[in-house]
Design a protein that fits this description.
Helix content: 10-25%
Shape: globular
CATH architecture of the domain at 117-190 and 234-420: Beta Barrel
Oligomer: single chain
Number of helices: 16
Largest sheet: 11 strands, mixed
Length: 741
């Protein structure tokens, strides 16, 4: 449920500053504005992990007057120093040179992958259940640990759109009392490759073509499908991307996975193998491909905005961290599944996910660059009781993540950036380097030494050091290759397919048809069709028909495969915290009626957004303010739409003023509203209206009695029914199913 703090918006979030801006340029000096109530900053710890107790806002700019970087006050920052007002700019203008030079160097190299992201601060509270299998302090009962989470797309650049069909990164930095632990995962539990040596290959294949630098943030092109159709271990991850999981509704409604198998160790040295899962309290939900395409044009920042707005509105997103636990034996195989193969899952029906704690994200960053852009994750960041396994992809990541920070953040001292600083004392022997901010004392940064009293002293067992688990290494020879248990590339791909509902299967088939339809090379299409035939003949036939190609016969035989219902997103009732409800009104709404509807939606933990013919106050009393207009509103913003007015065409309902006004709108309905309702209906979202306003739905061509469409005499009753429908995410019965799959 939404948890508002004093000063937070009661309805629509998104206000840019912590104070309302005046119309005229302010002329009285004043200190910088504080962060908004929903914003936070990294904890005030020193470069060596000591709690400084300093107000974290003091790390930002201070004082009332403009200064240079070295603190010299300046009276003018609008004009460069010239030899006369029409003369040349003088080289001695230090302020100009400093300002321009710093601007020229503001950007740092973007991440090679996961460049586009969004982040938030929060807290992880342990249930204590994992303390029986791990000595990590973070898993102690009721222990609360600060966290920073960064969500991201994989392929796109920093300026790409949020809703591209792609895997999403889900990286969590735990600032534990024993050092930083980074759990660096994705929203998909498997990966394209089994060995890290193939990582440059899969990313080069997925990135834009090197000759034209297109397409951006897409897999619908020849090089991607050329790679995955040849490198068939990628087929399992690919079908997840082609499913609705590839276009999530929100970061708040994504699962997260550690992907690899990790090792937990208790104080006695006993170990188990685990897979980490993040389970969103709001459920796992996605958008439709139509919604994704509209959103990428109307609001390419839709996921960033959704996360920040939800936190600002007090709808703090929550995830339970859970583990699947396996015996740590020599084979490291469970029910025939090799636990070291990152292209495989263990179905939850075989190994249930045991909850171990709850993460709540409750503060937005105060500065995107300083926090979300400069945060650096590293799978090497482990603490006592948590260790890695010999998963060959994980082993390669242990090198790659450390290596990439050296170039991206300009040297080895990236851990001293405020967002990356541990919340535990740091006493290492690492010295100097670019951007060193710690002022080290002593003369002997080596071990052993006598000049500094042999400090830092290696930690003994009472000091709880990290211990590398003594994992036995089987007698073998040096060679390149994978174990035989890695060779099955299709059984689990088919398992995923069989676990989908009919609607989800239709979406997967459409996605394959769309993506392969964007490829030029016939051989690439035919090769991938063969892979699809090895997954499911019906799936292959539907996609082949869409491509106008013959469907090949499978070359792989499958035994009986039991579906995993946990993989489907359809079904269940879910909380509605932070969901957005559009309320369409006419120029003169019944204000009391409208205020009651707004209040009911607000009380349900959702965000009511009034959609009016124009901006500003709506109606005669001025009690209601429009959040969107017919011009600015589009279906992808809303999880449901209520019609609270007759909505006749507004004065700007002309195609020359708004292209959306070109829609056909019979019955005297504004064409933009007609378009909105048509899209919302196709997207199987709940729609409600009451009283005589039901004629608007009829005029918009919505069939009476359709699933998820509510009409009634009383607004309160209609809203109550719509809220109930929304808990299922969509009116799934509204989707046509071809029966071909």
């Amino acid at each position: 449920m939404r948890q508002r703090t004093e000063g937070q918006a009661s309805t629509a979030p998104g206000v840019p500053g912590s104070e309302t801006a005046p119309l005229a340029e302010p002329t009285t000096p004043r200190p910088p504005l504080p962060p908004k109530p929903d914003q936070g900053t990294p904890e005030p710890v020193s470069p060596t992990g000591q709690d400084t107790g300093i107000d974290p806002t003091l790390n930002a700019q201070g004082g009332e007057h403009l200064t240079t970087a070295h603190g010299s006050r300046r009276a003018d920052t609008d004009h460069s120093l010239k030899a006369g007002r029409r003369g040349p700019v003088l080289l001695q203008d230090h302020h100009f040179r400093e300002k321009i030079s710093h601007f020229d160097h503001e950007r740092i190299p973007e991440r090679v992958v996961h460049a586009r992201g969004a982040g938030a601060h929060g807290v992880f509270r342990s249930y204590g259940t994992a303390s029986r299998i791990s000595s990590a302090a973070v898993f102690g009962k009721d222990v609360e640990t600060p966290v920073f989470v960064r969500f991201s797309t994989v392929l796109g650049s920093r300026g790409s759109a949020d809703l591209a069909r792609d895997t999403r990164g889900f990286a969590t930095k735990f600032y534990t009392s024993e050092g930083t632990w980074d759990l660096v995962g994705n929203n998909i539990p498997v990966f394209f490759i089994q060995d890290a040596i193939k990582f440059p290959d899969v990313i080069h294949a997925g990135k834009p073509h090197p000759d034209r630098e297109i397409p951006q943030a897409q897999s619908a092109h020849d090089t991607f499908w050329d790679f995955v159709s040849l490198h068939t271990e990628a087929q399992h991850h690919t079908i997840w991307n082609m499913s609705d999981r590839g276009i999530p509704r929100s970061y708040r409604t994504m699962e997260g996975f550690g992907v690899h198998t990790f090792r937990l160790v208790d104080d006695a040295g006993r170990s188990v193998l685990v897979k980490f899962h993040w389970k969103p309290k709001l459920g796992v939900h996605s958008v439709l491909w139509e919604e994704a395409q509209i959103a990428m044009g109307m609001d390419p920042d839709v996921h960033r905005r959704d996360l920040a707005d939800a936190i600002e509105a007090g709808a703090h997103p929550e995830w339970e961290l859970g583990v699947q636990v396996f015996e740590d034996n020599e084979e490291q195989v469970f029910e025939g599944i090799d636990l070291l193969d990152p292209t495989k899952i263990v179905p939850e029906e075989l190994a249930p996910v045991e909850p171990v704690g709850l993460m709540t994200l409750n503060r937005n960053p105060s500065n995107y660059f300083a926090e979300t852009e400069q945060v650096a994750f590293n799978p090497n960041n482990l603490v006592r009781g948590i260790d890695v396994t010999n998963d060959p992809l994980l082993q390669g990541r242990l090198f790659s993540y450390l290596d990439t920070q050296l170039s991206r953040l300009g040297g080895p001292n990236w851990t001293q950036l405020p967002i990356n600083r541990p919340h535990a004392p740091v006493n290492d022997m690492l010295r100097d380097g670019m951007h060193q901010t710690a002022v080290h004392s002593g003369v002997a940064p080596y071990h052993p030494n006598s000049l500094d009293g042999n400090n830092p002293f290696p930690a003994d067992e009472p000091a709880r050091p990290f211990i590398d688990h003594p994992d036995p290494v089987a007698e073998s020879v040096k060679e390149r290759g994978n174990p035989v248990t890695f060779e099955d590339h299709y059984t689990q791909t088919r398992l995923f397919w069989l676990s989908m509902s009919d609607v989800e299967k239709e979406h997967i088939a459409q996605a394959y048809t769309f993506e392969l339809g964007k490829c030029w090379e016939q051989a690439v299409k035919e090769r991938q069709l063969q892979a699809l035939a090895n997954i499911d003949e019906k799936l292959c036939a539907v996609v082949a028909q869409g491509l106008g190609l013959p469907a090949p016969k499978p070359t792989v035989k499958h035994g009986r495969i039991k579906p995993s219902p946990a993989l489907s997103q359809v079904g269940g009732q879910w909380p509605l915290d932070g969901r957005q409800v559009g309320i369409v009104v006419d120029p003169d709404p019944d204000e009391n009626d409208l205020l009651a509807v707004v209040s009911a939606i607000d009380d349900a933990g959702m965000v009511p957004l009034v959609i009016a013919p124009h901006g500003g106050p709506v109606g005669r009393g001025g009690k209601v303010v429009a959040h969107r207009t017919y011009l600015t509103a589009r279906s992808v913003e809303f999880d449901s739409v209520l019609v609270a007015g007759a909505v006749p065409p507004a004065p700007d309902a002309r195609q020359g003023l708004d292209a959306k006004a070109g829609a056909v709108a019979p019955g005297g309905v504004d064409p933009r509203v007609h378009l909105l309702l048509g899209e919302v209906f196709r997207q199987a979202k709940a729609i409600g209206t009451w009283g005589a306003k039901g004629q608007v739905l009829t005029a918009a061509g919505l069939p009476e009695g359709a699933p998820g469409v509510v009409s009634g005499k009383d607004a309160a009753a209609v809203v109550e029914q719509v809220v109930t429908l929304m808990k299922s995410h969509r009116a799934w019965e509204r989707f046509p199913v071809s029966g071909r799959l």
